[in-house]
Amino acid sequence: MGSPKKEKSAREPEPVLEYDGKVHFEIPEAMPLLPIRDLVVFPYMIVPLLVSRDISVEAVNMALSSSKERLVFLAAQHDIGEEDPSPEAIYTTGTVGMIMRMRKLSDGRIKILVQGLVKGQIKQFQKHEPCFVVQIERINDLDPSPDSGLEAEAIMRSVKENLERYAQGGKLISPELMLIMSGVEEPGRLADLVASNLGLKVLDAQQLLELRDPLERLRRVGALLQKEVDLLEVQARIQSRAKEEMSKTQREYYLREQLRAIRSELGDVDQKAEEIDELRARIARAKLPEEARGEAEKQVRRLEQMHPDAAEASVVRTYLDWLTELPWSHTTEDNLDMKAAHRILDEDHYDLEAIKDRILEYLAVRKLRGGAHGPILCFLGPPGVGKTSLGRSIARALGRRFVRISLGGIRDEAEIRGHRRTYVGALPGRIIQGMKQANAANPVFMLDEIDKLGSDNFRGDPSSALLEVLDPEQNHTFRDHYLNLNFDLSRVLFIATANAPDPIPGPLRDRMEILRLPGYSEDEKVAIARRYIIPKQIEENGLGIGYAQLGVPGLRAMIAEYTREAGLRELERMIAQIFRKMARRVAEQGTARPIKISPTNLSKYLGSPRFPRELERAEVDEIGVARGLAWTPYGGEILSIEAQSVPGKGNLLLTGQLGEVMKESAHAALSYACARAAGMGVGAPAWADRQIHVHVPAGAVPKDGPSAGVAMAAALVSLLTGIPVRRRVAMTGELTLRGHVLPIGGLKEKLLAAARAKIDTVVVPEGNARELEEVARPIRGRLKIVTVRSMDDVLAVALAHKAPAQEVAAQAASQAEAKTAQTVSA
């Protein structure tokens, strides 16, 4: 088989016939036939052919061996797909060709360079296995008519001009060939030369070859050439117009498709192109805002120009991954069914009615205002009271996704706003990371331990960075340093948690509504344990309902002697410890009879009590010992304040790891006691030569605050007067030098601590009386709460005998009157 090879070899010079086109040797009548698939060879045409079929290889070998001119008859076949054509499948009109060069290839094929000589017509086919030998008759062009000279010259001139335009339109015609064509004066020869370079279809070229009239053939070639030139001009105009009108995206798409097609033709699988296409598809699916989409497309173009193994390419890929994976527009639908929300909150949490009411009010406002953004809720309370689980319940009630980040110990502003991409290992901040984790633009986002944010002179202030996050007027354009794009946080429901209010910076606290969770009473802990903790631990430890029976007496003993806390974490650990021992017993014995846990056998499973009931064992009231109430980030605590006098110079010695404020309260209490000493019947010699030592046990725990002032004063008055303080009375309040009692904070937590410690009476400032309505009714029913305005009121309740201030003052007044009367009589 012969097929054309369009590229010319630089090592094979192309011989050219003499200008007159005459053949100076005799053309034989018989020669081998070389059928050609998709090409028609014209006289004067030089073409390389690649021969691979047996019929073609044998024809070439026969031509090379039969004559020194190495002639072969070149004829096109009707069907280019036929491998072994019959005589009926071959056009009878062809061209006698001379083999100029021949080279055998390593795979058995033959490469030849053939020059067309003259046209011929097949008269007879003779089979010469596996090829054909054909009898031919030479075909000469008809002589032109005498009156066709001017017409022929005009047509030739028009053809040559169009040929130049054809070459200028981008078609590859060598300058040497153009020079030869410009010098041709014969219509037939010019027609054949032009036809051989037009790239015509086989049928059109065959029809031209069969035309014997040279002028007619030139007319036909001129028409075809004019058509090609017109097509080139129209194509150029279309491309110019399309280039002007085509948008940037369409042009890039067009070029990419062309590039893909070229690479596909070359068999070049470009992994980089596949990656770029995948990134563009992900950008389209992500539905980015206009600013983000523009930045993403810019980064894709940068990545396209980089080497795949470049260090910056990895940075750009990571950045594009973040852009396409963030939930820019994906949201979940809110479920604002108030009844369902109320039911979910009741299922997940016991009591906390005030907190639940506030949450339901918040959801109701969002429902009526069409999802308008409300204030930032901050749950404030000791650990284990259910702050985080409240956030999960809100998310479940709304049908939103829940995400939580811990802010404890963060000192770097970049943890909130992210690092700039110029830094090695840069990442977005915690806020953007949480949004990616939520995979929704409107999650319930919990900022845990917001009171434990730190600050650094070199790394900035994270709390300042949170101001933009928590401000509804600003967070719709939150800008992370890594993304460097505006991200809308206005649809996020932010909830914060904290243990203490004071460490929260003022501007940050101003943006939040604080809801306090003071802790749980013993009754509430028992109810929560029976309703939630025990069933959960039975399931987690693989036990059945009847294996362990932990009743109310056992729970109360566990709460009082093992878990002195405001929350429920330690209680859950103790219950889990009991059920683990039950699980081991069942696993070792196969089956076990049910065990009832009671106060008598509780130590068998939990060991000795951690908090012996010292107050309950106290039988008598003590002199110089008062019980104060303290607030800590972990709940309320009972402080035992002891005062003792020792020989000295009238100094005040303070121990027990006291803070500056608490030391000042002790000095104020002593000054008050000394100022009222005369009224209490205590003379100066009773304390002038004594040193007062005030100690607060648990010395390893730092203590501070002004609310211990009245307890210190009560202990000092008891020490000076010798009247004991009632053991079941606890007190709190800030004391002034003139004996006034000022309000304090953390009243709920302190009352819960008093209830846990089995205190009977609690003395609180009158300024806190309005807060008593917020205290749970069971707590108020268990405690006798006395409100006081002055230290005299405190002493009347705290001291074991009748309040000495009034008695001593009356006695001193009567004694003074008696002395005055004696002086007057004298």
| Poorly predicted spans | 3-20, 819-826
Percent helix: 40-55%
Q: Helical region count? A: 29
Report the sheet-strand fraction. 15-25%
Q: What's the total count of β strands?
A: 25
Radius of gyration of CA atoms, rounded to a whole number: 52 Å
- Trace the largest sheet across and list its strands: 19-20-18-17-21-24-25
Entry keywords:
25 strands; 826 residues; 29 helices; disordered N terminus; 5-stranded mixed beta barrel; alpha/beta; disordered C terminus; single chain; 7-stranded mixed beta sheet
List the SSEs and their pairings:
Layout: E1 2-4, E2 30-36, E3 46-51, H1 54-66, E4 71-76, E5 93-104, E6 110-128, E7 131-139, H2 149-168, H3 175-183, H4 187-196, H5 202-210, H6 214-245, H7 248-266, H8 271-286, H9 290-305, H10 311-325, H11 338-348, H12 353-368, E8 376-380, H13 387-398, E9 402-406, H14 414-417, H15 430-438, E10 444-448, H16 462-470, E11 478-479, E12 486-487, E13 493-498, H17 506-510, E14 512-516, H18 522-540, E15 548-550, H19 552-561, H20 569-589, E16 595-597, H21 602-606, H22 614-617, E17 625-632, E18 635-647, E19 652-655, H23 660-675, H24 685-688, E20 690-695, H25 709-721, E21 729-731, E22 734-735, E23 741-742, H26 747-756, E24 761-765, H27 777-782, E25 784-788, H28 791-798, H29 804-825
Parallel strand pairs: 2-4, 8-13, 8-14, 9-10, 10-13, 15-16, 17-21, 19-20, 21-24, 24-25
Antiparallel strand pairs: 1-3, 2-7, 3-6, 4-5, 5-6, 6-7, 11-12, 17-18, 18-20, 22-23
